[in-house]
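Honest question from a wet-lab person: if I give you the sequences of every part of a complex, can you actually get the arrangement of the whole thing, not just the pieces? Trying it with mine:
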Amino acid sequence: MREPEEGAGERTGEQERVARAALTRVIEPGDEHGGRWLREFGAAELLARLTAPDPDDTALPGATPRRIASYRIRAAAADPHRDLAAVAAVGGRFICPGDREWPTQLDDLGGARPIGLWVRGRPDLRTWALRSVAVVGARACTPYGAHMAAGLGTGLAERGWVVVSGAAFGVDGSAHRGALAAGGATVAVLACGVDVVYPRGHAELIGRIAQQGLVIGELPPGDHPTPSRFILRNRVIAALTRGTVVVEAEYRSGSLVTARSAQRLGRHTMGVPGPVTSGLSAGVHELLRGEGVLVTDADEVVELVGDIGELAPERRGPVLPRDLLDRVSTRVLDAIPARGAVDAGRIARGAGTTPDETLGRLYELHSLGFVERHGEGWELTRSAIRGSNARRGGP
Amino acid sequence: MREPEEGAGERTGEQERVARAALTRVIEPGDEHGGRWLREFGAAELLARLTAPDPDDTALPGATPRRIASYRIRAAAADPHRDLAAVAAVGGRFICPGDREWPTQLDDLGGARPIGLWVRGRPDLRTWALRSVAVVGARACTPYGAHMAAGLGTGLAERGWVVVSGAAFGVDGSAHRGALAAGGATVAVLACGVDVVYPRGHAELIGRIAQQGLVIGELPPGDHPTPSRFILRNRVIAALTRGTVVVEAEYRSGSLVTARSAQRLGRHTMGVPGPVTSGLSAGVHELLRGEGVLVTDADEVVELVGDIGELAPERRGPVLPRDLLDRVSTRVLDAIPARGAVDAGRIARGAGTTPDETLGRLYELHSLGFVERHGEGWELTRSAIRGSNARRGGP
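Yes, you can. This is the full assembly:
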């Protein structure tokens, strides 16, 4: 066995990034063999071993020859440049560990960390994830579950939090819609390619999320969901967010898998109670009898997940110096008056950007501690005003 | 100020008992002055000071002359022998600290311990209280709340637990009825005299509880409820039981007062969740966001309150030697075969007692660890069988 290259997994060079993009077609989410090889050899080297013209099974230790053969078949078929072009065609990109946009929370997954993420939408995933909460639950939810999920989506968005969910029917869809309805930020984590619409009935919803928010996933363009991909997708939702709220779930449901992943990762797990007589609340109540915290509205969620103190704007101020912001974000920030709140439309006009672009930037600036949201209005945080005054030589 | 008599408060002599009965007419539940004097002087001495023909205010320290005068007026009007006769006329009695039947859990109330309790019904309060759970909640409950309360009442009764509540409309009534419907044991703690029917609409229910269970309270015969008496009654419910389950409660409701008393007394506090959209579940959810444990059925309640280990028959065996049981309980115990479960009707025939009397005794024997209940049937615990064999010289 050759020596592993030092820090190979964290290189962000173009060769490594393209190799990681290729490997998303070769290694399934949660595949232990593939994950170990990746950590051991790095992406480019692993891809080279898988596609070597002169196959050497000893170069891929721990798997049966038959298994190695199936990896080789997939590797031979992989065409990362085509995939990167396909995702670019729908306004997307591929990000991987070491990238500036990589959400480092995902590193908490250890060996189960995604190889990379395919991302559709303008906003910066890393900053959005900093102030995000997952809202998940039953596909076949009751009107009560849909009502609670939409209310949480709206309430979290109004308080400047990013709503993460799985774009499924039922609770997921209601949570996304609630956030969108409030002109808020939302991220859909798919169990398929980000250019694949699943479920079909959510074509319009997923399109709107890609416009106003982010659609992300581990699977390469064109790939379809499978039962195991759904289950493994849940760990990404859990790891990405500060906490997971379960709204209606039967015993042993996928939402509880997300909640338990969140628990193991040290994230907050929360549940919305319902009638004991409803089987769709039984899973939530089971969670609440364990480590889960009972929540009844967005305020109670924010009280819990905002508790970490990290990045709370009033206490710590911006986490980035203003001068490190990019050009567009700086223009958006400059379009907010020193005093009082203004709506996103007015900020967009002042900054000379589109409303969707502006909203994405505002959520980033919120995550970074520069702005706060109050209902429909956005205003500078006190520390952002101080920073601005200092820069301008003001008091 | 005279020296307090040593241990005066715990004397069980006839003079002291009659004086305590009289004082339930003079000192309101929760009255701090009266409670302090009682602890300091003992009941007979306090009554003597209150009814002295030559009034001496310095003998009653800490209260204004006007206040003392009002105590004296009530003390002069008290006629404990008439009250004791009145309660005896409805099949009742008066018990006080130091009595064999006194539930010593009430001593956890410290200075707020009741002066004594007026009791209607055959069963022994002390042994019943050992395995009891309070089920309380909103008067104006929803059909959901009534359903859950009745289900808990039935489920707890079927598992051999005594259901304690306040005989009010709504949740209380449903809990009592659920226990009665299962042929189970239930205790109504009233905020009025035990011969007073309140609420009037529960005349038949309270009558059935007095027949099949126990109706108890701090107030002397004929006394009516007041708002403060309702609130102070709740501390008795909390202290008497191993835990309190709240089924539907609005913010700041009386049921939450009971739950908080239970918490302060180190008892288990539990709540049955409901729809967040129902104001009648808001108080319960508040409780569950604090120290309260979410429960959805009787099994979960028993799992929690039975956890203390104390008296769990399988582990510890009977707490009383069989020879200390009274004549009727011994007959009931002897009517149960060494193997297998039988219903209460057959035991009653074997013991030559009435079905109600038998059921009361069975719950006592259950509390004492001699018998277990399985659905409709009663059977001897393993340790009761061992004790019996040993006594009979068997294996």
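Two things worth pointing out. Residues 8-78 of chain B form one domain. Chain B touches chain A at residues 144, 147-148, 272-277, 281-282, 285, 288-289, 293-297, 300 (CB under 8 Å).
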